[in-house]
Automatic annotation (TrEMBL):
Binding site for ATP: 8-15
HAMAP family: RapZ_like
GO molecular function, one term: ATP binding
Domain RapZ C-terminal: 164-282
Keyword GTP-binding recorded: yes
Protein's name according to its UniProt entry: UPF0042 nucleotide-binding protein
Domain RapZ-like N-terminal: 1-155
Signal sequence, start to end: none
Superkingdom, natural source: Bacteria
Keywords noted in UniProt: ATP-binding, GTP-binding, Nucleotide-binding
Residues that bind GTP: 59-62
């Protein structure tokens, strides 16, 4: 039996994740008190209906029960029930925006400021996040992207635990993404914006990629960037880092940064790292 525990920050997409697991034919349970995890897992394992895939949402709505999570995880282990933890996260400003859009109070601080609830919840979940098998940052995810990422891990088996490589292309004139660990400026590369037939296209188009990569400095830069990432990523993993966010920026975030982000993502992905590529400004 594959037993998956879904947890993470409120507003990061736990309910959407549960729906994605349902679509993958998992038996799903929402908001189960952590103290009941071992008993629920045993019931599923011993069920006459032979339940082979289970996903359970455990979140801060469990209140005082949440402190029982680690004791329950130890019990699961002692009972010989393997489990995997998926932790959903997002940048603070994204979480605030989502709560405001849905006009919802934060469950940790329902009568106070949303950001205060987020700060408190993040502190409460720090240890859980550290022990998670998969950490997905949904800051730039659409619903479809979250579903696709979960399908990659749990349906197709394209996984690399421990670390997720997020590559974000952006335009400097629209601001630097706040959650980047590493920033690379590719404004020194030849700019397709000044080529009339390439201006309306973007770095997802082969014509733009061919133009950018036709220059030696582009090829040398990409090779050196790949070498640097191959050196850095294992060291980040060794230090326990669960996600590495790489920002690739050009002037407008449409041509050069998109091209380099795509090609770097292809090269890193070929090393069997779980890689997510996001183009923040390509259609702005």
């Amino acid at each position: 039996m594959r037993f998956v525990i879904i947890t993470g920050m409120s507003g990061a997409g736990r309910s959407l994740a549960a729906k994605a697991f349902e679509d993958m034919n998992y038996y799903c349970m929402d908001n189960l008190p952590p103290s009941l995890l071992p008993e629920f897992a045993k019931l599923c394992r011993e069920s006459s209906k032979s339940i082979e895939k289970v996903a359970v949402v455990v979140d801060i709505r469990g209140g005082v029960f949440f402190k029982d999570l680690f004791e329950s995880l130890e019990t699961l282990q002692n009972e010989g029930i393997d489990y995997e933890i998926v932790f959903l996260d997002a940048a603070d400003e994204i979480l605030v925006k989502r709560f405001k859009e849905h006009r919802r109070p934060h469950p940790v601080n329902p009568t106070g400021r949303i950001i205060e609830g987020i700060t408190t919840e993040r502190a409460m979940l720090r240890e859980v996040k550290d022990k998670s098998d998969y950490i997905l940052d949904t800051s730039s995810f659409t619903n479809a992207m979250l579903k696709e990422e979960l399908n990659e891990i749990f349906l197709r088996g394209n996984i690399q635990k421990n670390i997720t490589i997020s590559i974000i292309s952006f335009g400097f004139k629209k601001g630097i993404p706040v959650d980047c660990d590493l920033i690379f400026d590719v404004r020194f590369l030849p700019n397709p914006h000044y080529i009339e037939e390439l201006q309306p296209l973007n770095g997802n188009d082969k014509e733009v990629q061919d133009y950018v990569m036709d220059f030696e400095q582009s090829r040398v830069f990409l090779d050196k960037l790949e070498d640097m990432m191959k050196f850095l990523i294992p060291h980040y993993q060794k230090e326990g880092k669960s996600q590495l966010v790489i920002g690739i920026g050009c002037t407008g975030g449409k041509h050069r940064s998109v091209t380099i982000a795509n090609l770097l993502g292809d090269r890193i992905g070929s090393e069997n790292y779980r890689t997510v590529i996001t183009h923040r400004d390509v259609y702005k």
